[in-house]
Amino acid sequence: MGGRVTRVFRNFNVENRARREISKEKPTPAPRHRTARLDTMADSPEIKEEVLRKDDRFLALLKDVYVESRDPAVRVKDGGGEHLPSKQEEKRLTKLGHLEGLDVKKVPKGKISLVEALTLLNNHKLQPQIWTAEKIAAEYSLELKEVNSLLEFFIPFTVQEFRKETKKAITSHEPKKLT
Predict the structure, then answer these.
(1) End-to-end CA distance of the chain
(2) Cα–Cα distances in angstroms (integers) from residue 106 to residues 89, 94, 113, in the given order
(3) CB 133 within 8 A of CB 147
(4) Can you spell out the DSSP letters for 111-131?
(5) What b-and-e string marks burial along 15-26, b requiring 16 or more CB atoms within 10 Å of the CB?
């Protein structure tokens, strides 16, 4: 809608405005200085001779300049051309239980899979006395600081079902526990 309105104002009386602009007298440009013209200078034989002449003093100074460059030394790695992995990561089998079909089978030590993360968060939420941060760190080969951060900042969802007769009034009751 806005494009139509602006187009109408932009095209209004466009022919008359164009004719008026074309019929205006063009301003005469300012006169140029004689020395600003390059083509007249290039034609003079004195300038050509000066450009082509070698200056012995500058040539002697240029010969005194000596530049030496060296490439850095190339380091040869020991290894005899074998392509071995530089770092062997220790892997551990995942502890998934009945969800093993959903996730990877081996995980590097110090890391956990997504299903394991959800499992340990849910276990800690349901039984915090048994599943402490220290036990989780030992069980899943994690650092204690990372486990504490994980338990502090990530909380699994809870599913609550309400009875049909109490749709309007929500009372606080014990939520269903996921297993």
Answers:
(1) 58
(2) 11, 6, 9
(3) yes
(4) ---HHHHHHHHHHHHH-TTTS
(5) eeeeeeeeeeee
Q: Whole-angstrom Cα distance, residue 117 to residue 114?
A: 5
pLDDT, greater one: 5 or 111: 111
CA dist., res. 134 & res. 142, Å (int): 9
Cα–Cα dist 84/87, whole Å: 9
pLDDT in tens, 95-146: 655 555 555 677 788 888 888 888 889 889 999 999 999 999 998 889 999 9
- Among 118, 131, 128, 129, which Cα is nearest to 158's? 118
Give exposure, 33-71, as e/b (b: 16+ Cβ within 10 Å). eeeeeeeeeeeeeeeeeeeeeeeeeeeeeeeeeeeeeee
Q: Write the burial class of residue 140 (CB in 10 Å: 0-12 exposed, 13-18 middle, 19+ buried).
A: buried
- pLDDT for position 1: 64
Spans of all domains in the chain: 91-153
